[in-house]
Amino acid sequence: MRARATALCAMLLFVFMFITGRVAMLSANRAYAAAAFAQSATYTPLDSGRGNLYDCHFTPLTNAVKRKCLLIPPTRESYYDLFDLVPAESRPELYDSIQKSRPFLLPVTGDADESYPVFYQTERYLPVPIAQHLIGYLDGEGNGVSGIEAACDEYLAGGDTLRRIYSITSAQGEFLDGAKPRVVESQGTGNGVMLTLDASIQRVCEGIAAEMLQKGSIVVMETRTGRVLASVSMPAFDPDNAAASIDAEDSPFLNRSISAYSVGSVFKPLLAAAALETGADTSEIYHCTGSITVADHTYRCAYGKGHGDVDLASALEQSCNCYFIQLGLKLGGSVIEQYALRTGFGESTTIVGSLRTASGNLPSAEDLENLGQLATVSFGQGDLLATPVQVTAFMNAIANGGVYVAPSFVQGYVNGYTKTVTQSLYAPVMRRAFSEETAEALRQMLAGVVENGLGQGAQPTTGKAAGKTGTAQTGRTDADGNEKMDVWFSGFYPADAPRYTITVMMDDEVQGSEEACAVFARVASALAYFLDDTGSDA
Question: Are 170 and 101 in contact (CB under 8 A)?
Answer without folding.
Answer: no
